[in-house]
Amino acid sequence: MKKPSNFLFLLLISVLLVSCDCKKEETTNAEVKLTEITKPKNIILLIGDGMGLSQVSASQFYNKNATNFERFSTIGLIKTSSSSDLITDSAAGATAFASGIKTYNGAVGVTPDTLDVKTIVEQVSTKGISTGLVSTSAITHATPACFYAHVKSRRMEDNIATQLVNSEIDFFVGGGSKFFNKRKDGKDLTIQLTEKGFEVSTDKLPKNITDKKQAILLSEKGMPTMLEGRGDFLPDATQLALDYLSKNEEGFFLMVEGSQIDWGGHANDADYLISEVLDFDKTLGVVLDFAKQHGETLVIVTADHETGGFALVANDGDYNKIKPVFSTDSHSATMIPVFTEGPGSENFGGIFENTAIYSKMIQLFLE
Ligand code: MG
Ligand code: ZN
User: Fold this and answer.
1) What is this structure's pTM?
2) Which residues surround ligand 1, an ion (CB under 5 A)?
3) Closest Cα to residue 218, out of 232, 227, 208?
4) Are strands 350-353 and 306-307 parallel, antiparallel or unpaired?
5) How far, in Å, is the centroid of ligand 2 from the Cα of 330?
6) How far is ligand 2, taken at its centre, from the CA of residue 263, in Å?
7) Containing domain of residue 222, as a range?
8) Region 107-134 average pLDDT
9) Does the annotation count 90 as an active-site position?
10) ∠344-350-351 over CA atoms, to 5°?
11) CA 342 / ligand 1 centre spacing (Å)
């Protein structure tokens, strides 16, 4: 009699223990996963300069109804006004992303009182995180400049170039070589870049890069347009940046700018604009593929503002034919979409100020 009851008792206990154990393990795993997914090791911020929702929609209608924007799980909207104007420029817009403050149009990394304000690059580089910039404009142009420079006007590009040489940026690629080697002060900053430990490339994207810091300047001012035959510069340069930066176990911050979506808008040139959007969309594919392989990567895609008051309207009343049109050759005030994918992306739904892009990134990186 004693034996069977003992046996049943033990059986009951072990069943309870097993089920109890399972449950505990599940909870623990879930907890671990949650921490993992909310804290990315890497953040990639892609800025389509001047890219509003109609520009994004162009990547659908002019690309066989297939766009990489569809691969993002969380969508939000930002309010983009600057401290001086309802309609921002790219400098105030990028300062909001890089430093989390509203400032006046034209300001690069400074407050409305022209005081320097710390950038995300300056903050995360002290934690051993690598940083990189990729742009189809001059690397000293307003958008990339806001991530490393502090000047009261975006036009001070010689000064901005000097600040890039002395910045914490580990990898940069874009145009703007004339601000380094054809300067008003006659200095050749490519020599200083070499002295600072950079490998400098000025003719093409290097094939095999070393572990040295990389300075890649492939045109005097902006890069050529897509219509002029820029080819796969932006996706290829972005892939190179990812190959380089992902060597750092501590993680990285990368900003990639599709600069000329804005320039197509200013020119009211739909072919120019659409070709730049499609190039940006292709680059999103490169970044999302990387993020899929490296699960600890948060991808954020947004814009500083919309340019051109761009719209996709019915051609001559025919709802089955789209005509791209413009309502201004300047920027517009419309809210701007934010697409996110990867760990931490759940924080980017809803409507918020452009400065919150910065604060959310900093929280995910440092807190
Ligand atoms: Mg720009
Ligand atoms: Zn613009």
Assistant:
1) 0.90
2) 49, 90, 143, 259
3) 232
4) unpaired
5) 7
6) 6
7) 61-250+271-302+330-340+355-367
8) 98
9) yes
10) 120
11) 25
